[in-house]
Amino acid sequence: MTLSRAVTMLLAGAAVAALASCGPREAPADRTGGTASPPPDLPEGHPDYTGPNRSTIWDIFRPQRNENVVAVNKYIWNGALEVLSFLPVQTVDPFTGVITTGYGPPPGGGPAYRATVYISDPALDARSLKVALQTRSGPVSAATQRAVEDAILARARQLRERDSRF
Known about the structure:
The protein has two domains: 3-61, no CATH class; 74-164, Alpha-D-Glucose-1,6-Bisphosphate, Chain A, domain 4 (2-Layer Sandwich). The chain is an alpha+beta fold. It starts with a helix and ends with a helix. 31% of the residues lie in helices and 15% in strands. This is DUF3576 domain-containing protein.
């Protein structure tokens, strides 16, 4: 056997031993022939700890949770994109629920508007939607902003009703 083959076999054996030690440990047999379970109050660092914060090498293969992802309501999202379709979309981020547009004139003319839409909740609810509108000369009136929010929510309800028919 050559030296390189012996080293390869030694490293492979060490890797197998390391992976085998990552598995769950068997509890020792008690006097009645069954297995004794470890006490439930073991600290997290103990090798026999089996609580919710236990981690193993296999955790790298599990899907990771991203706490920065916001679940958005698809009807409000699509309603906002449809109602504000006359504005050029600059950025959309469905993971945080933000739509940002550039300046554009509304249908029928008038001053150019820019919008930022924030959808903060998966519920089809007015509290889930925040719209910030502005013109080149500054923010728009609260009534105009409310009218755009109402149009988005109305379109979202129409989309949901359409989907519920199927």
